[in-house]
């Protein structure tokens, strides 16, 4: 299929021979995340120290629990990615980029566990979105704040979802990424420095996965 033809599709059902492969890529990256993310948190509990960033260290944005809906929309983006990439090779590269992000972040989580911003001051709020906010944030861990894997994984997802796509579609996807990055801060899931760390981790992961992808594409097909 030519690049011009691929650009006509924003999402498409993979060929029957590729569906299981793409599902395995997505499932493996999810399993990798769960094992390493919560494993790093468990190991960090053995430390008797935490890196605490003071409130004036980057927490200037106003809290608003309604942004929780944007925060969890990352899972929609990730569910759509296997249908957005143009080939199984790109799907594998996307999966690798997520795993690279988690692996690199895990090293930081273990060696330099960083506390998330405090949210205790919001316990008494009665905003309609607060119950939903507390439900979602129960899955978060203290000590895994820097870098933000929410930001890193979304950037990797947007990168691979927008290859060979129209310019307007890429712009919308990156606006989505910025909205999620903003949500991580206003919801007190992360500091601004955590967002920056997530972008750096994603850049490294994308560069590394792209190298492997390019190497695979230039290899001659077996006879």
Rg of Cα set: 19 Å
| Strand composition percent | under 5%
Order of helices and strands: HHHHHHHHH
Largest sheet: none
| Assembly form of the protein | single chain
Global mean pLDDT = 87
The termini sit apart by: 21 Å
Low-confidence stretches: none
Helix run count? 9
Domain count: 1
**Approximately how much helix is present in the residues?**
55-70%
The number of distinct β-strands equals 0
Write down the overall geometry: globular
Task: Report the structural category.
Answer: mainly alpha
Q: Can you give a write-up of this model?
A:
The protein is mainly alpha-helical and 223 residues long. The chain has one domain. It contains 9 helices and no strands. Helix 7 runs antiparallel to helix 8. The longest helix has 29 residues. It is globular.
